[in-house]
Amino acid sequence: MMQPAPARRHSNTILLFGATGDLSRRMLLPSLYALSLDRLISPDLRIFCTARSSLDDEGFRAMAYAALEEFLPEGRKNEVGMKAFVERLHYQPLDATKIEDFGLLAARIGSISDGLSIFLSTAPSLFEATLRGLKEAGLTGQDVRIGLEKPLGTDLASSRQINEAVAQAFTEAQTFRIDHYLGKETVQNLLALRFANMLFEPLWSAQTIEHIQITISETVGLEGRADFYDGAGALRDMVQNHMLQLLALTAMEPPAEFNASAIRDEKVKVLRSLRPVGEQEWVIGQYGAGAVDGQPVKGYIEELEKPSRTETFVAIKAHVDNWRWHGVPFYLRTGKRLGERRSEIVIQFKPVPHNIFAARGGQVVANRLIIRLQPEEYVRLLVMAKEPGIDEAGIVLREVPLDLSLTHAFSGTVRRIAYERLLLDLIANDQTLFVHRDEVEAQWQWVDAIRAQWDKAQATPKGYGAGSWGPTGAIALTERDGVSWHD
């Protein structure tokens, strides 16, 4: 008999740093509104917001209402609900470099004995000052937990510096490192697909899987992130966090339980098993001018308005050196200004050992499992079936999809953005979908070795036209193994 989930202590107060920023306006405030509208958070939950902007409560509420008007889907806008929600917001200006501002913030918040959840969405350069200010003002302690938005450093050394600063004020059990991909429904469905169905787990290994592809492609360019992106590049911005988390969830062993500790333990084993990438196992590129969705767009250098060797595309052939995945390549690919916006995992199974239909003209294609994360969400298994009818030439086989469309299967369910789940779990003290320090450091260790290899080789990104699927070298990376990207 299923045991009830253990009780979790919810915070009675949430505090958003960087509350006037782009992430807050696009994601955090709309997410809290949605949770409030659907009564998933307590009506007594106090919501405090802070940033450098010199606003009072009414000024911030007006800004928040405008953000809801701009970024909420039409079907989720409720004028009464929106007005009621913004009335719950309280704003206190704060300069993280001024310790006295934290005292004013603490006085405004008052007692935190009923629990305080902090979401830190500020520049990484302000993390240490913010953490020090929180501690000085008494806004830490056993009743407080903190959510940290990426980027958490630019390499292993800077990541450790940030983690050490966090550890001075918060224990690991109080620290929620956010990777918003883990809040996506289809990512969580990957765990359900693997561990709630007997069908796939016996096949989930090198015995039956030929290779795995993970693609996160974007059609957008810099979009106001020029300074950050040019200092990060595709490897640090996407591979180090999102892609390696997807790889870990795909490759992990079955956890003993569905809880934060068990799942994190299995993920970190995968990340520590990543083989160092060889000299011929990566390709980097930078987009030039081209056309996306039929519209001409500038190249990266023209958008940036200065010379740069930053990569906007990276493809990597990775290996997980353990018994389950011995010999199975994981092809990772991500980039900006590509042909289509798409995030997906493709599991390519091995072909059948013997085609019994060959003598009668039947051509067999190996099965594929496609897990699409965005823009639409679905799980699709491609299988072989006989075409109906009679054919004088013999038997005609065709690849057909068995589809689980989450959009259609759960059409009556509200589709939620990732931050709704992550904010709710932060408030509820559930770390299952958050990243442990050990994972972050294992990811950086692997990525730093790749960057060191690039520096040694003085690697220069190869050009590719906007609207294409990256430089030609990315095709050669897989074709050498007889593999084609799933496009």
- Determine the N-to-C terminus distance: 45 Å
| Anisotropy-based shape | globular
The helix fraction, in percent, is 25-40%
Structural class: alpha/beta
Spatially, the strands of the biggest sheet line up as 16-15-14-13-7-12-11-8-17
Low-confidence stretches: 1-7
Strand content: 15-25%
Major β-sheet profile: 9 strands, mixed
Question: Can you give the mean pLDDT?
Answer: 91
Radius of gyration: 24 Å
Q: Helix count?
A: 14
Strands, total number: 17
Notes on the protein architecture:
Helix content is 35%, strand content 21%. It is built from 14 helices and 17 strands. The chain has helices at residues 22-37, 57-71, 79-86, 99-109, 127-136, 156-167, 185-195, 226-251, 260-272, 300-304, 406-409, 418-428, 437-457, 472-479; strands at 13-17, 46-51, 89-93, 116-120, 144-149, 175-178, 209-217, 282-288, 290-292, 295-297, 313-319, 329-335, 342-349, 368-374, 378-386, 397-405, 462-465. The protein has a nine-stranded mixed sheet with strand order 16-15-14-13-7-12-11-8-17, with helices on both faces. Helix 4 (99-109) crosses helix 5, helix 6 packs antiparallel against helix 13 (437-457) and helix 8 packs across helix 9 (260-272). The radius of gyration is 24 Å and the shape is globular.
Layout of SSEs?
Blueprint: E1 13-17, H1 22-37, E2 46-51, H2 57-71, H3 79-86, E3 89-93, H4 99-109, E4 116-120, H5 127-136, E5 144-149, H6 156-167, E6 175-178, H7 185-195, E7 209-217, H8 226-251, H9 260-272, E8 282-288, E9 290-292, E10 295-297, H10 300-304, E11 313-319, E12 329-335, E13 342-349, E14 368-374, E15 378-386, E16 397-405, H11 406-409, H12 418-428, H13 437-457, E17 462-465, H14 472-479
Parallel strand pairs: 1-2, 1-4, 2-3, 4-5, 5-6, 7-12, 8-17
Antiparallel strand pairs: 7-13, 8-11, 9-10, 11-12, 13-14, 14-15, 15-16
